[in-house]
User: What shape does this take?
Amino acid sequence: MKRILVVEDEAAIREFVVINLKRAGYQTVEAASGEEALEIYMANDDFQVVLLDIMMPGLDGLSVCKQIRAKNTTVGIIMLTAKSQEMDKVSALMMGADDYMTKPFSPTELVARVDSLNRRVEMLANSKNSTVSDEIIIGDFTLNLRRRTLVKRGIEIELTPVEFQIVEYLFSMAGMPVDRTDILKRVWGESFIGDEKIVDVNIRRLRMKIEDDPSEPRYVVTVWGKGYKWNTQA
Assistant: This one.
């Protein structure tokens, strides 16, 4: 059973989310506060996806996101935000969230976004158990497509499902610039409804993990007017 933790302090919104996810075949566990969410998650982290509201009294969603991501790098995290929370969206992605939805959202969008992230999480979980090697080596990095791992100079880098998909796409196009729209479609899907900035924020977060100096990136470089590329000359 696909399990989702739904964290939302507004009962009406939480009920709306839970009803629609159950109809789509998900098993849901509810939390009405950040504190309750962490208590549930730390006791049993067997969730594929966490839906997490940013603005909650007490422990807010950003703090919860940071603590959940520190415990589990592969769980999918979708933040629920208001239109006025532009900076919070960026902060949430930098804290480790994979995606965000702006309220109000439709049942169709909710299920589509959860389905998409859940597939990535399941793919990562299944491939981690594989012993078959299918590696791409570029300079200091080894990308294992079966085990879904990235190793730099012998040290594995912990990536979220979204980060891995970005690296996988850039590796497949190594040395060639890739438009952010292409990255968005490849990683988040053709039906993604949202801002292309989500790509830029995830690239920034990825650089913090893989670059020797994130302020002077050598591996994931910006090609002005074209997008990003994996630099094969680094």
Remarks:
- The chain has a mean pLDDT of 91.
- The chain has two domains: 2-125, 131-230.
